[in-house]
Write a structure and sequence with these properties.
The structure holds two protein chains of two kinds.
Chain A lengths: L1 E6 L2 E6 L6 H8 L18 E4 L2 E4 L12 E3 L7 H12 L9 H14 L5 H8 L9 H16 L1
Parallel strand pairs in A: 1-5
Antiparallel strand pairs in A: 1-2, 3-4, 3-5
Helix pairs in contact in A: 2-3, 2-5
Chain B lengths: L10 H4 L32 E4 L2 E3 L5 E5 L8 H13 L6 E5 L4 H4 L16 H28 L7 E3 L2 E3 L5 E3 H8 L28 H5 L15 E7 L6 E6 L1 H5 L3 E7 L2 E6 L2 H9 L2 E5 L8 H11 L5 E6 L2 H6 L3 E9 L11 E6 L4 E5 L4 H12 L6 E5 L15 H13 L3 E4 L2 H6 L7 E9 L5 E11 L8 H4 E2 L2 E2 H4 L12 E8 L13 H18 L4 H8 L4 H14 L9 E10 L2 E11 L5 E11 L6 H20 L5 E2 L2 E2 L17 E6 L17 H13 L17
Parallel strand pairs in B: 3-4, 8-18, 16-17, 20-23, 26-29
Antiparallel strand pairs in B: 1-2, 2-3, 5-6, 6-7, 8-11, 9-12, 10-11, 13-23, 14-19, 15-16, 15-18, 19-20, 21-22, 24-25, 25-26, 27-28
Helix pairs in contact in B: 2-4, 4-5, 11-12, 16-20
The chains are: A alpha+beta, B alpha+beta.
């Protein structure tokens, strides 16, 4: 079965089973490896991508469920919020091992797109689904505040 | 991990890995490797003065890292040390993982022949080696410039990648590469006075931040090689069970499944993509022979440990007469502690990529024990070790898991490649990881102490019961002495407090659950039991916990200094609102000294929130203070995970947990505000990857006691009915 979707602005037709999770379609079929496998059951957020701008967990989303939608991965992330988030991540040296950070950045960018000035509580609520085993959480919070300030000019 | 490695470096300590490695056990002290003159320029014209650095005509400075980057900042730290002595421009510095080669890249703290990362040793063991490597390269550039400009070398200056004279004459590193290649690298180049360091001790930017913030960093799971198939393995449901038979008919019907093969670890399903491999495994039918398997409940194993603790164990440390001192004491305090099995659960599950041909094997992995993995892979492949190439990639966390003496996942990958004849990307799922064993062992501790009428501690007995991490591994010869596995008792047998009558003993148990070092190893449990017990003794003696410790640390100034700094910065002794409490702990591991003060709030329903942690650390010279802070922050968060809720439990021998819904790492809302204070030091640097972990558990437990009067003597908090927010 072919599933058609837009991946990072490119129209694709993926010849995969309907029930294949979007994560494996992105990584193994489309060949983009920035989106990570962490748990396979929407517990850790390492696989977070945007579907029509909304953060979703690619590991439990069947590829057929995003048929016709615009899917964005870390490789295709663009825009002011994304730039501010990624610049803050680098400047505050958020990552340690770095494996979860694609997912963290996808969640943080979605948060700032919807809420320009999040409080610590807003951040905790939006980022609660993204586990960082290195526990870089203090810097994640700080970097989101930094990015929010950048966006406010 | 890897237990205690003394910086005082007695021959026996430093040689402890000698038995683990092929080849010479001779100490590799400092920088010794030198190429023949003809090799001084690489094929692409770069200056190659030694095995640790290449200087390109484009001014690039490439540092070869012998240690794994798994998040701890080792790549940046190693490059900083070399670039400092080279006077390189940091903007031109890059890092590449060194190939596996124990003779050149052996860990000096482990005897110098085994290449591997652990025991928070990367910067410590590389410190002089990389300073000399950088200084030797600098001396060659200086000598080349001096000859070219016809001046004495003393007149040549080097600053940020520019070689110059006062007159204004200047050359870049790249411009001098060819001339410098004609110079002989000095064996013992002069090193800088630390007072003029420009990179060490400064906020040098980490080199891996952009790649890790854009999804471009390559981990083993991302490594693509032509024609590779994805493999997942069905392993035994019980530790020690073996495949009796299997039926692959249905598995092979799954679209994308290419092959199903038996390997020593179980049955591997090999497919064109990961999803097909996982689905194929679900369709697989395996019958297990579980006659030799461990079938007990973890609760039953713990009960057997408690029974064992009634009897004396093998003596790990004894001074004075603790038994007599406690008998004649005015007051006796006793406490038992229980610690569960813990999984490492790195975010990148174990993965390796293997390409095997008739006479060679190439492996890509977040490899932590390069030369040990090379030996084990060679054995599995039926090749000699020099035919195995290891490409070390970033590891998506490890916490000790990838430092496995048996190289479990590497051997699996090689076995599958051999059985199928195909290049293989082996992927462990999260369930494989949580249920796959190699846990921090379960332990039972019993502590007894006697107080005199003035509240002085006159005797201290500490009994530990649990499995040995190193028994049956190549590390046994070096780390087990007189029946004592040093990793079981470190932190207890090295109690810093001035107590005249001290006795520590150990029961090493035989349980069929595979165990391994877990970030900070023995200190994961000994720091908790000793530092909570100190708090109990302070309360029993009606003394302030900081004052009690101060009085007993006269001979341990580095412990004392971090204790005092943490207490001062935390406002120790200042009143707190009702429902709040403050607790302190101090602990040395891997020759770094850390004290932490935790502040908690316990609400009227008993729910605990850790609000703030103040951390003081003495790790010698802080090569990169921001990385030191990051490792303390991360160590505290990692430690809190295990204190709050993590536990691996067994029912009938089967692991009850399977994924992050029931083995639950810390989440963002549980992360306290952390403040890190670094003690200025002129001592050689020691590690920071692990030492931030041990004090947080006891500091939090002591804070909970201060707030509520409740003692937490078994972990995690969740198992004691304590809710955390």
């Amino acid at each position: 079965m072919a599933v058609s979707l837009s991946l990072n602005g490119k129209d694709l037709s993926l010849d995969v089973p309907d029930d294949m999770p979007l994560l494996w379609a992105i990584r193994d079929v489309a060949g983009l490896t920035g989106t990570k496998f962490g748990c396979g059951m929407a517990q850790c957020g390492a696989c977070t991508v945007h579907a029509d701008g909304q953060p979703i967990r690619a590991c439990i989303t069947p590829v057929s469920a995003v048929s016709g939608q615009k899917v964005t991965t870390i490789e295709g992330l663009q825009g002011k919020a994304a730039q501010a988030v990624q610049a803050a991540w680098v400047r505050l040296e958020v990552p340690q091992c770095g494996y979860c950070q694609s997912g963290q950045i996808m969640s943080a960018t979605a948060l700032l797109t919807q809420n320009a000035k999040p409080t610590d509580a807003d951040i905790d609520a939006a980022m609660n689904g993204n586990i960082c085993r290195c526990a870089t959480y203090q810097r994640i919070r700080a970097a989101i505040h930094t990015a929010a300030k950048t966006l406010q000019g | 991990m890897l237990g205690r490695i003394d910086t005082s470096a007695t021959a026996s300590r430093r040689g402890f890995l000698a038995g683990a490695a092929a080849g010479s056990a001779a100490l590799v002290v400092g920088f010794h490797w030198r190429p023949a003159k003809a090799q001084m320029l690489t094929a692409d014209g770069a200056l190659a003065p030694n095995a640790f650095v290449r200087i390109g005509k484009d001014n690039s400075v490439t540092v070869f890292a012998k240690h794994l980057e798994m998040g701890q900042g080792a790549h940046t730290g190693l490059a900083t040390v070399l670039a400092e002595e080279l006077d390189a421009d940091w903007a031109n510095v890059k890092v590449m993982a060194a190939p596996a080669d124990g003779k050149i890249y052996g860990n000096i703290d482990w005897g110098g022949t085994v290449q591997g990362t652990g025991g928070s040793s990367s910067i410590h063991n590389s410190w002089m080696q990389l300073r000399k490597a950088g200084a030797a390269a600098r001396a060659m550039l200086v000598a080349a410039a001096a000859k070219s400009w016809n001046v004495p070398v003393g007149q040549v200056r080097v600053e940020r990648g520019i070689v110059s004279l006062r007159s204004g004459k200047r050359a870049t590193f790249g411009e001098l590469v060819e001339l410098a290649a004609k110079e002989t690298p000095p064996a013992d180049p002069p090193l800088k006075d630390p007072k003029i360091f420009r990179l060490i001790g400064k906020e040098t930017p980490r080199l891996d931040m952009r790649a890790k913030s854009t999804g471009t960093a390559v981990f083993a799971i991302d490594q693509r090689i032509p024609d590779a198939l994805v493999a997942v393995v069905q392993r035994a449901p019980l530790f020690g069970a073996k495949v009796a038979s299997f039926d692959a008919t249905k598995a092979k019907e799954v679209t994308g499944v290419v092959d199903v093969v038996q390997i020593p670890a179980g049955v591997a399903v090999v497919a064109s993509n990961t999803w097909a491999a996982i689905k194929g495994r679900e369709a697989l039918s395996v019958t297990w022979d579980d006659r030799a398997a461990e079938k007990r409940d973890s609760a039953a194993i713990m009960a057997s440990y408690r029974e064992l603790a009634a009897r004396p164990g093998t003596v790990a440390k004894s001074s004075g007469d603790a038994e007599a001192a406690i008998k004649s004491a005015a007051r006796t305090v006793e406490a038992d502690f229980e610690f569960p099995y813990l999984a490492h659960a790195p975010m990148e599950p174990l993965t390796c990529v293997v390409r095997l041909s008739g006479d060679s094997c190439e492996i890509w992995a977040g490899d932590q024990f390069q030369t040990i993995d090379q030996l084990n892979a060679a054995k599995a492949a039926g090749l000699s070790p020099d035919r195995v190439v290891i490409n070390t990639l970033f590891a998506g966390g490890s916490f000790g898991r990838r430092a496995n003496p048996g190289s479990d996942y590497i051997v699996e990958g090689v076995s599958i490649a051999k059985a199928t004849g195909k290049p293989i990307r082996l992927v462990w799922t999260r369930e494989d990881d949580i249920r796959g064993g190699r846990y921090r062992p379960m332990y039972f501790h019993r502590l007894r102490a006697g107080l005199d009428a003035q509240g002085n501690i006159v005797g201290w007995q500490h009994r530990i019961v649990g499995q040995s991490i190193v028994a049956g591994t190549p590390f046994e010869g070096g780390l087990v002495k007189n029946g004592i596995d040093a990793t079981s008792v470190e932190g207890a047998s090295t109690l810093p407090y001035g107590i005249a009558n001290l006795h520590v003993d150990l029961h090493t148990t035989q349980v069929g659950v595979p165990v391994l070092w877990w970030r900070s190893v023995g200190s994961t449990h000994t720091a908790y039991s000793t530092e909570v017990f100190m708090d109990e003794l302070a309360r029993a003696a009606n003394k302030d916990p900081v004052a009690l410790r101060r009085g007993l640390l006269a001979k341990h100034p580095r412990h004392l200094a971090v204790l005092n700094l943490a207490a001062e910065k935390a406002g120790w002794g200042k009143p707190l609102a009702k429902g709040k409490g403050r607790g302190i702990a101090v602990h040395e591991s891997f020759n770094s000294y850390v004290a932490q003060v935790a502040e908690v709030t316990v609400d009227d329903k008993g729910k605990v929130t850790v609000d703030r942690v103040v951390c003081a650390v003495d790790c010698g010279i802080a090569v990169n203070p921001d990385v030191v802070r990051a490792q303390m922050e991360g160590g505290i968060g990692f430690g809190l995970s295990s204190i709050f809720a993590e536990a691996i439990t067994l029912k009938g021998g089967a692991v009850e947990q399977s994924n992050f819904h029931d083995y639950t790492p810390l989440r963002i809302e549980q992360m306290p505000r952390v403040e890190v204070h670094i003690l200025p030091s002129t001592q050689p640097p020691t590690g920071v990857g692990e030492p931030g972990v041990p004090p947080i558990g006891p500091a939090v437990a002591n804070a909970i006691f201060a707030a509520t009067g409740k003692r937490i003597r078994a972990l995690p908090l969740a198992s004691q009915g304590v809710q955390v927010s």
